[in-house]
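User: I'm writing a tutorial on reading structure tokens. Could you give me a worked example: one chain, its sequence, then its tokens, then a sentence or two explaining what the tokens reveal?
Assistant: Sure. Here is the example chain.
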Amino acid sequence: MKKTILTGIRPTGNLHLGHYFGATKNWVKLQDEYKTFIEIADVQALTDNFDNPEKVRKNVTELAIDLLSVGIDPKKATIFIQSQISEIAELTVFYSNLVTMARLYRNPTVKTEIAQKKAIFGNDGESVTYGFVGYPVSQAADITAFSGELIPVGEDQLPLIEQCREIVRKFNNIYGVTLIEPEPLLSSNPRIKGLDGNEKMGKSLGNAIYLADDEETINKKIMSAVTDTNKIRKDDPANPNKCMVYYYHKLINNPNLETVCSECKNGSRGCVQCKRELINYMNEFLKPIREKRKYYESHPEEVEKILKDGTKIAKEKAESTMKNVKSAMKIDY
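And here are its predicted structure tokens:
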């Protein structure tokens, strides 16, 4: 019997190359090996987009189209909408009694994100909401509602999985063994760098290539990519390892990679030439994804049905879990 994988993504924007190489490309492979649930976490998206619900709602469909375009097969993986599973909200309430605020504030991932918010909105922390601090509890509910055994994550997400494991252990200790303690399934891919050389690609940083970008957009973005600052003239030798254009040549497996590298080093390749070559290969790389995206954009009824059917399956699984949880807690009136 296949083990169950639970993974999810917040609908705060379209998928970019960082998402693809860091996660969704791997999900496409995993769906053949495991019973896969993919959550579109719209409730969690509202923790820092609570004042812009229209954005989150619109992006639910956009994200579903992105997932289908990269190869997620609804016959193999269950794609569902978090907010439609009321059992997740119930479990979040139950689990909130098992976690102290002090423990949440000690969570390294939460600490990092709170620090980022304080840097943006001020040092008093007044902008940090209860929902934001407590989202690891909600995430534990996401995982356990579907009896997630393996959770695909990067190393930076390990503290969140450990938080879930602690909640499961405490619940089982108090109420009897009811929940499955999940294990992380580490991704082999590091974070994907942005066009500006930043260690992380992200929408807020304005350094991302999106899977939905058209050819004109790709052209503009790549032409602005950071290269080796020591290369002043066209014929100057350069260090390809300091160049984001070369970084993306490697990322999408340019078959001429060795030539790109050697010509960069000996000064026989100009940056404009190199960028134009990358533009061509990037558009070829994105072509099949764009074609699938175009199909689903012109067939919104199919996307709606996939989400509806997936959410129904997820709902049935969550209801079964909740029945066991309430029985264990002696509240199955």
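What the tokens reveal: The mean pLDDT is 91. The chain is about 55% helix and 10% strand.
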